[in-house]
Amino acid sequence: MKGAIRYSLYLVMGSQDCRGRDPVRVLDQAIDGGITLFQFREKNSGLTLRETVSLGERLRSLCRERNIPFIVNDRADLALLLDADGLHVGQDDLPVRQARRLIGPHRLLGVSAETVEEAEQALREGADYLGVGPIYATATKPDAGKPIGPGAIAEIRQRLSSPLPIVGIGGIDVAGVAEVIRAGADGVAVVSAIAGKPDPRKAAVELRQAVERAAGAAPGPAGFDPR
Ligand SMILES: Cc1ncc(COP(=O)(O)OP(=O)(O)O)c(N)n1
Ligand SMILES: Cc1ncsc1CCOP(=O)(O)O
Ligand SMILES: [Mg+2]
């Protein structure tokens, strides 16, 4: 599974991000639009743990049907319960080594990093990819801290002692994609630029085209199937 991961367009989402719509429907549309990876991030939504598990099961089975890797945010217990393809942890979450011990060697482990030092430690302790951000200002994560800009990606990319996939996250929309990719990211992770839009499919198509264009791939014609 690890080798097959495509980081181009990573949707991070929970029910709190979907403007009252069914998250399963939003995810389905985002998959139609060309997302390559999904993270279930249920935060302060008011769902009980039981409701979270139940929603996670529905999202997980959609990802399985549509062949999209399914990552769980923060909680190793939920990742195991849902037989997720991976777990994402930040600097205040389960330590990377312990997270790795819980999920085993085969599931993907993503780690948030803002600096070269955090990135280097994540690499040493068993991370498979880095989420670097917040790149731009974001209202989605009030505790995200000040934007670090695309330059942080360039610095981590250049100074990391061995290569690791990087996704930029935080305030990224179509206009911000090129800078993030040109700084050295393998892809972009977004919440509101897909889940907060009236047409999540169209939003995903446009983001995916922007990623491919910035990565130097030939831009497809309007309405192309980006997968
Ligand atoms: C891909 C990706 N990158 C970064 C984060 C942020 O993780 P964290 O800092 O732990 O913050 P929360 O998402 O838990 O609020 C992420 N979730 N995904
Ligand atoms: C989860 C997370 N981690 C750093 S910024 C952020 C929120 C990203 O949301 P948006 O794409 O809407 O700015
Ligand atoms: Mg976290």
Automatic annotation (TrEMBL):
2-[(2R,5Z)-2-carboxy-4-methylthiazol-5(2H)-ylidene]ethyl phosphate binds at residues 138-140, 171, 191-192. GO terms for cellular component: cytoplasm. GO terms for molecular function: magnesium ion binding; thiamine-phosphate diphosphorylase activity. 4-amino-2-methyl-5-(diphosphooxymethyl)pyrimidine binds at residues 39-43, 73, 112, 141. Its cofactor is Mg(2+). Pathway: Cofactor biosynthesis; thiamine diphosphate biosynthesis; thiamine phosphate from 4-amino-2-methyl-5-diphosphomethylpyrimidine and 4-methyl-5-(2-phosphoethyl)-thiazole: step 1/1. Binds 1 Mg(2+) ion per subunit. Its EC number is 2.5.1.3. Residues 9-194 form the Thiamine phosphate synthase/TenI domain. Keywords: Magnesium, Metal-binding, Thiamine biosynthesis, Transferase. It is an enzyme of class 2 (transferase). One of its GO terms (biological process) is thiamine biosynthetic process. Transmembrane segments: none annotated. Mg(2+) binds at residues 74, 93. It catalyses: 4-methyl-5-(2-phosphooxyethyl)-thiazole + 4-amino-2-methyl-5-(diphosphooxymethyl)pyrimidine + H(+) = thiamine phosphate + diphosphate; 2-[(2R,5Z)-2-carboxy-4-methylthiazol-5(2H)-ylidene]ethyl phosphate + 4-amino-2-methyl-5-(diphosphooxymethyl)pyrimidine + 2 H(+) = thiamine phosphate + CO2 + diphosphate; 2-(2-carboxy-4-methylthiazol-5-yl)ethyl phosphate + 4-amino-2-methyl-5-(diphosphooxymethyl)pyrimidine + 2 H(+) = thiamine phosphate + CO2 + diphosphate. Belongs to the thiamine-phosphate synthase family. PANTHER family: THIAMINE-PHOSPHATE PYROPHOSPHORYLASE, THIAMINE-PHOSPHATE SYNTHASE. HAMAP family: TMP_synthase. Condenses 4-methyl-5-(beta-hydroxyethyl)thiazole monophosphate (THZ-P) and 2-methyl-4-amino-5-hydroxymethyl pyrimidine pyrophosphate (HMP-PP) to form thiamine monophosphate (TMP). This is Thiamine-phosphate synthase. It comes from Planifilum fulgidum.
